[in-house]
Design a protein that fits this description.
By secondary structure, the protein is α/β, with parallel strands linked by helices. It folds into 4 domains: 6-104 and 181-385 and 430-470, Glycosidases (TIM Barrel); 110-166, Alpha-Beta Complex (Oligo-1,6-glucosidase, domain 2); 386-429, no CATH class; 497-575, Immunoglobulin-like (Sandwich), CATH 2.60.40. Bound molecules: 1-O-alpha-D-glucopyranosyl-D-fructose.
Length: 577
């Protein structure tokens, strides 16, 4: 049986601070707004929040470009405001994870300002600086062929010192050199600054990019583009586990905290086990990025629309079965701030299906083992911007860079961009960052009616908002509360229980089903999720005397040995105790 821990029983609610609640009418969310909603989050049944970065930052990548880890982006508030949020959460027996962005800093960070001053500066080696290469014609070239994840070269020439510096994301996000011990120690000091204020753990951004191959070799040439992925040399490099272990020894082990690493590129069973196996003593769990669009593989997220329920089934089966094998743990999630919303992406936001589909996805997230992470708004069935929104609605650098690169390649002809707009309407990170829809007042109650919100508010807020659902027992919000209560009440079954997939051969490819069994009581439950907009009948002879524990449509019965699932139907059956 699985060893118990508070971070295994946690239910984490991701808050995107810019988009949660604006308390001072400047059109941007802030810490005071979050503090005012702690009781709401508690009432939902979430007990931990993960807050995307709130640190001082020029906001070129929405705070994932940190200029000072020990001060707060002024429009969000102050360190004292964050301390009040931490204390308010602890008063409600809740916890908070900070977003730890330490693979890179902003180019406005003092460390980088120092580092770029001269080749002999003491902080020069805190970042990656390399001499140019020159081609046969004597033209200056970047030190290698790596592409930035946001497009273009990952190298940027600095005139003052005639060298290039490495930035895997934006040019304003220079990568820190983790091989430098002084840099690591300074970073550990920043972690301790927040842990000493009561922060209960970290979501570690771009965690496995911190160790790169020491020679920074050219990436394999996969196509005729000027720059190549290079991920085989900048992800999960040779000292990655050494750095994670050092973080544990120097920082994490002094506190009772949760650690979640964001893993890119290497997502096979062995690589995952090396981070989360108990005897490895590294991290508690990972975001493996396969299901949602964080797969940085050669097929960029804006490649073809490759979602199919089988992809979710395959990856879930892998993690659900493999994690107990090495006594590890994992996250369970379908949404975050880097991806299109799962309701639109993996189910349906069509009016006739939207509520049922949102409840089906809630059933998935709350009946698997692993720590569920839900994104703000997922609890009320928030969805993507509809496809009638034009390119101006997308303000995130990832979407804008992609759109402009393709538009330029097509001679600036906007009429030739419908395929790109379709991809953006499914996958753009903007959908995961839409302002929270609190009520049907102007600006969705996110900010004052007069304020100009910092980004597009989905026009469907008039019908999809907290206020219209909170007192409706049939709402998505009420269903989330019920399913989280069920998970908590039956933790031995849904958190710690065993997992056994029901073969696709018996359910068909559009119904994802699995069995959970309690090691303590032997109670067994079976979960059926219909990922299609068609009725699906599945054999259920063996469950005919089971009762319905949870269902997202009228009472579900097993009859003639079959279970008929309505479009996006979800049902959890359990045998009598
Ligand atoms: O994401 C890691 C990352 O690589 C993502 O940018 C991912 O490739 C992309 O979103 C897939 O569509 C983390 C943060 O979650 C992301 O918001 C930041 O932009 C990035 O790191 C840099 O800090």
């Amino acid at each position: 049986p699985v060893e118990k821990a508070w971070w295994k029983e946690a239910v984490v609610y991701q808050i995107y601070p810019a988009s949660y609640l604006d308390s001072n009418g400047d059109g941007l969310g802030d810490i005071k707004g979050i503090i005012s909603k702690v009781p709401y989050i508690k009432s939902l049944g979430a007990d931990t929040i993960w807050m995307s970065p709130i640190f001082a930052s020029p906001q070129e990548d929405m705070g994932y470009d940190v200029a000072d880890y020990r001060s707060i982006h002024a429009p969000y508030g102050t360190v004292e405001d964050v301390q009040r949020l931490i204390d308010e959460l602890h008063t409600h027996q809740m916890r908070i994870l900070m977003d730890l962005v330490v693979n890179h800093t902003s180019d406005q960070h003092d460390w980088f300002r120092e580092s770029r001053k001269s080749t002999s500066n003491p902080k020069r080696d805190w970042y990656f600086w390399r001499d140019p290469k020159y081609d046969a014609q004597g033209n200056r070239r970047e030190p290698n062929n790596w592409k930035s994840i946001f497009g273009g070269s990952a190298w940027h020439f600095d005139d003052a010192t005639q060298q290039y510096y490495l930035a895997l994301f934006l040019p304003s996000q220079p990568d820190l050199n983790w091989a430098n011990e002084d840099m690591r120690k300074a970073t550990y000091g920043d972690m301790i600054f927040w842990l000493d204020r009561g922060v209960d753990g970290f979501r570690i951004d771009s965690m496995n990019l911190m160790s790169k191959h020491p020679d920074l070799p050219d990436g394999k040439v996969l196509n005729d583009e000027p720059y190549q992925s290079g991920a085989e040399f900048f992800a999960s490099g040779p000292r990655m586990h050494e750095y994670v272990r050092e973080m544990r020894e120097q920082v994490f082990d002094k506190y009772d905290i949760m650690t979640v690493g964001e893993l890119g590129f290497t997502k096979d069973e062995k690589s995952v086990s090396e981070y989360v196996a108990k005897d490895r003593h590294e991290l508690n769990m990972l975001f493996t990025g396969d299901i949602v669009d964080m797969d940085f593989g050669p097929t960029t997220k804006y490649g073809r629309d490759d979602f199919h329920p089988r992809k979710i089934r395959k990856l879930t089966n892998l993690w659900q079965t493999v994690v107990p094998k090495f006594n590890g743990w994992n996250t369970v999630y379908l949404d975050n701030h880097d991806s299109g919303r799962s309701l639109t992406r993996y189910a349906s936001d069509a009016p006739e299906y939207r509520a049922t589909a949102a409840k089906m996805l809630a059933t998935y997230l709350t009946t698997l083992s692993g720590t569920p992470f839900m994104l703000q708004g997922e609890e009320i069935g928030m969805a993507n911007l509809s496809s009638d929104y034009g390119p101006d609605a997308y303000i995130d650098v990832e979407a804008k860079n992609h759109y402009n690169t393709v538009l330029k390649a097509r001679g600036g002809d906007e009429s030739k961009m419908s395929d790109v707009m379709r991809e953006l309407s499914l996958k753009a990170r903007d959908h995961g960052r839409l302002p929270m829809q609190w009520d049907d007042s102007p600006n969705a109650g996110f900010t004052t009616a007069e304020a100009k919100p910092w980004m597009t508010i989905n026009k469907d807020y008039v019908d999809w908002n907290v206020a219209s659902q909170v007192d409706d027992p049939g709402s998505v919000l009420s269903f989330w509360k019920e399913s989280l209560r069920l998970r908590k009440r039956h933790a031995d079954l849904f958190v710690y229980g065993s997992y056994e997939p029901v073969p696709e051969s018996s359910t068909g490819e559009m119904v994802f089903a699995y069995r959970r069994e309690s090691h303590e009581s032997g109670q067994m439950a079976v979960v059926f999720l219909n990922f299609s907009d068609k009725e699906q009948k599945v054999p259920a002879e063996e469950y005919k005397d089971f009762s319905v524990l949870l269902s997202n449509h009228q009472s579900q019965a097993v009859f003639e040995g079959q279970l008929a699932l309505v479009p996006f139907g979800a049902v959890v059956l359990t045998q009598q105790q």
